[in-house]
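Weekly sync, protein design subgroup
Attendees: M.S., D.O., the rotation student, P.L. (late)

Item 1: inverse folding check
M.S. brought a backbone from last month's batch and wanted to see whether the design step gives back something sensible before we order anything. D.O. pointed out we never logged the input encoding, so this time it goes straight into the notes. Structure tokens as presented (116 positions):
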């Protein structure tokens, strides 16, 4: 089973930027996409966006479209989330996951805090 490790979270002022990384340990054989999710305190986990593994097609939730960008370095087996123009409502723990038929192999998450 693939293990995912997120990194890059931190504290940033509103309007700032952060880059998150999701490193995959193990071969991605049957999975077809990697994705980012986030969970704020007291809220359900929310889909942020995803990238397909073969063609690199990306998809984003409307709340982050135009501000966040997902990319993937196949040689490093790593997915990235570039977050720009951050807002206080982006504050959450950010998780990555892989998808075969459904999302799974969740990482432990990395905290992103955006100050007003």
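Designed sequence read out in the meeting:
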């Amino acid at each position: 089973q693939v293990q995912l490790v997120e990194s890059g979270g931190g504290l940033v002022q509103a309007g700032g930027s952060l880059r998150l990384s999701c490193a995959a340990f193990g071969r991605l054989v049957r999975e077809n996409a990697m994705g980012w999710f986030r969970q704020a305190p007291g809220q359900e986990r929310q889909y942020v966006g995803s990238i397909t593994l073969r063609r690199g097609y990306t998809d984003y939730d409307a709340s982050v479209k135009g501000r966040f960008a997902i990319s993937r370095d196949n040689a490093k087996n790593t997915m990235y989330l570039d977050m720009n123009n951050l807002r206080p409502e982006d504050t959450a723990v950010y998780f990555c996951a892989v998808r075969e038929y459904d999302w799974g192999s969740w990482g432990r998450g990395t905290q992103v805090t955006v100050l007003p």
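Discussion: The chain has no helices and eleven strands. The two ends are 40 Å apart (CA to CA).
Action: P.L. to compare against the previous round before Friday.
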